[in-house]
């Protein structure tokens, strides 16, 4: 079921929104819906403190690594067909 949302804007801001919608050849309502969807997608989800904690715990680990050129050479050798190496 659809719900109505009423938002009060200053005249100048409303004019800007209408112009933006017209430039994209859509109704003002559709432009606003798309802007709200984009804003929701861009908003971070979850607790930032929890995310930061996970990153900090992960950063404590030490994993072996090779020189980047050596790693890339190993990857390329792995792509080679049997008998090509």
Question: What's this entry about, in short?
Answer:
The chain is mainly α and 85 residues long. Helix content is 61%, strand content 0%. It is built from 4 helices and no strands.
Provide mean pLDDT, rounded.
Answer: 90
CA-to-CA gap between the ends? 62 Å
Given the helix and strand composition, which structural class is it?
A: mainly alpha
The number of distinct structural domains comes to 1
Sketch the major β-sheet: none
Shape label: elongated
Assembly state? single chain
Order of helices and strands: HHHH
Beta content:
under 5%
| DSSP helical segment count | 4
| Share in helix | 55-70%
Q: pLDDT under 50 segments (min length 5)? A: none
- Rg, Å, rounded: 26 Å
Number of strands: 0
Question: What this model shows, in words?
Answer:
This protein is mostly helical. It has one domain (11-79). The protein has 4 helices and no strands. It has helices at residues 11-23, 28-42, 48-59, 68-79. It is elongated, with a radius of gyration of 26 Å. The model has no long low-confidence stretch (mean pLDDT 90).
Give the key terms.
85 residues, mainly alpha, elongated
Q: What does the secondary structure layout of this molecule look like, with pairings?
A:
Layout: H1 11-23, H2 28-42, H3 48-59, H4 68-79
Helix pairs in contact: 1-2
């Amino acid at each position: 079921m659809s719900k109505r949302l009423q938002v009060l804007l200053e005249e100048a801001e409303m004019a800007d929104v209408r112009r933006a919608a017209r430039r994209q050849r859509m109704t003002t309502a559709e432009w606003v819906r798309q802007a709200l969807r984009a804003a929701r997608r861009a908003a971070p989800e979850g607790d930032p403190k929890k995310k930061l904690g996970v990153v900090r715990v992960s950063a404590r680990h030490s994993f072996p690594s090779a020189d980047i050129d050596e790693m890339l050479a190993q990857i390329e050798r792995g792509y080679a067909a049997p008998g090509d190496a």
